[in-house]
Amino acid sequence: MNQKGIIFDMDGTLIDSMPVWKNLGGNFLKNHGIEPPDNLNEITTTMSFAESSRYFVNQFGLALTAAEVNAEINEMIRDSYGTHLPLKPFVKEVLDQYVRQGIKMSILTATDRSLVETAVKRLGILDYFEFILTSDMTGLSKSEPEIYYQAVETFGIPEKEIAIVEDSLYCIKAAKNTECYIVGVYDEFSKNDWEEIKRVSDRTINSFEELRK
User: Fold this and answer.
1) Residue with more model confidence, 41 or 9
2) What digits encode the pLDDT tens for the residues 63-96?
3) Residue 173 near residue 46 (C-beta atoms within 8 A)
4) Are 141 and 108 contacting, i.e. CB atoms less than 8 angstroms apart?
5) DSSP result, 87-156
6) Residues facing 183 on adjacent strands
7) Structure pTM?
8) Distance between CA atoms of 94 and 87, rounded to whole angstroms?
9) In sequence order, which residues have a C-beta less than 8 Å from that of residue 99 and are 6 or more positions away?
């Protein structure tokens, strides 16, 4: 890639964390005595933290505020982000490479900022990034192209000189509304969408090793 800036997704792209999310919503509902619907992941996958919290309150009649739901879910996974979720293979090497090349980098994620900072500090990569932008900070879901425009604007680099690296099909489709170069990353959680991700993206990689020079 010859871009001057790169916007990375975090979960499933930089960090191997998607297994933690797979049963999170269902486990939260079960903790409150509610049997989750079979298609819960399908319903919530494109939602931001705030949107999914409001959905749980409104759909299941919880005696909690959306903010309280958000806080409880964060606490359910905070230990994972703080102790053991790893970088995907070769991510650190590629980030080091981009630093040497003078490429600016950022993170754009639907995950709560406190969890993001907990993870990237532990993994020793916080200082690699110019900024971290989250759905809750912007009030936008990653299914909305506007969140990508906002990230590009924050960078201050022309769209055509920026790459966006994502593992989720719905995010890639939203990002394609920009003029950025889109790189799709394979993740087991999104394997059913891989053929479509390959079709929509400008480039796809199975591993960050493919980006090493």
Assistant:
1) 9
2) 999 999 988 988 888 888 999 999 999 999 999 9
3) no
4) no
5) BPTTHHHHHHHHHHTT-EEEEEESS-HHHHHHHHHHTT-GGG-SEEEEHHHHT--TTSHHHHHHHHHHHT
6) 165, 203
7) 0.89
8) 11
9) 105, 128
